[in-house]
Amino acid sequence: MINSKLPEVGTTIFSVMSALANEHGAVNLSQGFPDFPIDNRLKSFVTQALDNNQVQYAPMPGRLDLREAISSKIEQQHGVKVDPITEITVTAGATQAIYTAITAIINEGDEVVLFDPAYDCYDPTIRVNKGVPVHLKLVHPTYHIDWNEVRQKVNSKTKLIITNNPHNPCGSVWTKADIIALESLVQESPQLMVLSDEVYEHIQYEDEHQSVLKSAILRERSFVTYSFGKTMHVTGWKLGYCIAPESFTAEFRKVHQYLVFCANNTMQYAVAEYLNAGEFWREVMPMYRKKKELFLEAIQESRFKPLQCSGTYFCLLDYSEISTLSDVEFAKELTTKYGVAAIPVSVFYEDQTDHKVIRICFAKQDETLIKAAQLLCKI
Ligand SMILES: Cc1ncc(COP(=O)(O)O)c(C=O)c1O
C-alpha cells in the first residue's frame, strides 16, 4: 500500500471543466492557453533546429546561447545584469522551476507563506517536501497583499514567501509599495527567501511590471521564475527558466540535474534564435489588451460584473446578480446549460472561499471570445 504524500490531491478542476466542456460542446474559456497560431518566424527556427540536428541533450543548466539571450533581454528590459553562467537555469516550464526551487530549500517543518487564491502547484509542492504551507488571503475584491498581516505571520521558521505578479487567477499587479514592503520584510527576517513567480511579466496593462529583479535587496534573496509558454504562446513546449543568485542557483541545479537533467534542446535552440531576432515581447501586451477590451465590451450588456484586470490573460467575473449557487455549481451550470466553460475561483483557496466569481481566459481567437460573450449576454 502506498502511504500517499498528497492524500487530498485528486483530479484538478481544469480537467473536470475541460471534460465537461467537451461533452457539452461548450466554448472553453477555462484553461489558460492561447488557441491562435504562433509567429511563423518562431516556427521556422524550430525547423532550423531540426535541420541542424539539434536533437540531443542540452547542457544541464540550459544552452549557453539561450542563457545569454535571456541575460541580454533582462538587461534591455530592466537595465539589470544577470550572469548567464551562474544565475540562469533553463527549466521544463515554470512549473519545474517552482518545484525545483521549493525542493532545493524547504526542509521538514519549514513554513512557507503563500497567498490565496493561489496558483495550484505551490501548495502540493511545499507539502511533498514536508514544509508547512501558511495560506494568507489576498484582499477581495482588489486582490492586493495585506503586508501587515504578512508581517504578523512571518517568524523564525518562515523560510520562503511565494508571490505571483501579475496574478493568476486575479489579474492584480504589484505597485512599487509592494516591492518596498517585501524589501523591509526580508531585511527584518534574515532566513527568509522569496519565490517570485513572474510568468505573466509581459501581460501587464497599466504602469510597468514591478519585477523583484529590479530591487537589489530582493534580487539577492529571490528565485524568480518565467515561462516561454506564456510569452511566446507555446504553453505545450513547457520551457521556462529560473533566475537566482549564484549560491541559490548552485542548490537549485543540484535538484534540477536529477529531476530532468536538462530541458528540451530543440525548443531551446528555437527560442534562443527567436529572442536574438528581435524584441517580440513588446507585441504581447498590446495584442492581449485588444482581446481584453473586445471581450469586456462584448459582455457589457450582460449581468456579469468584471473585476479589475490589470495583468495576465485572465479576467474575473462576479455573477452574484445572476445566481446564488456556489461558484463550483455555477461554473458547471454555465458549461452544461449555457455553453461556456470557466473556472470557479474557490478552487484556488485552501478553504474554498466563495466570493461568487469565476475566471475566464481571454487568450482566444476573437471569434471564440465573441461567441462566448454572446452566450454570456443571454444569461
Ligand atoms: C502563475 C503561474 N505560474 C506558473 C505557471 C506554469 O507555467 P509553465 O506552463 O511554464 O510550467 C502558470 C501556468 O499557467 C501560471 O499561471
Describe what this molecule looks like in 3D.
The chain is of the alpha/beta class. It folds into two domains: 115 residues, Alpha-Beta Complex (Aspartate Aminotransferase, domain 1), CATH 3.90.1150; 239 residues, Aspartate Aminotransferase, domain 2 (3-Layer(aba) Sandwich). It is built from 14 helices and 13 strands. The strands form three sheets. It has a seven-stranded mixed β-sheet with strand order 2-8-7-6-5-3-4, with helices on both faces. Strand 3, helix 5 and strand 4 form a beta-alpha-beta unit. Pyridoxal-5'-phosphate binds next to helix 4.
Helix content: 40-55%
Strand content: 5-15%
In terms of structural class, how would the helical and strand content be classed?
A: alpha/beta
Largest sheet: 7 strands, mixed
Domain count, please report it: 2
Q: Strand order within the widest sheet?
A: 2-8-7-6-5-3-4
| Bound ions, cofactors and other small molecules, one mention each | pyridoxal-5'-phosphate
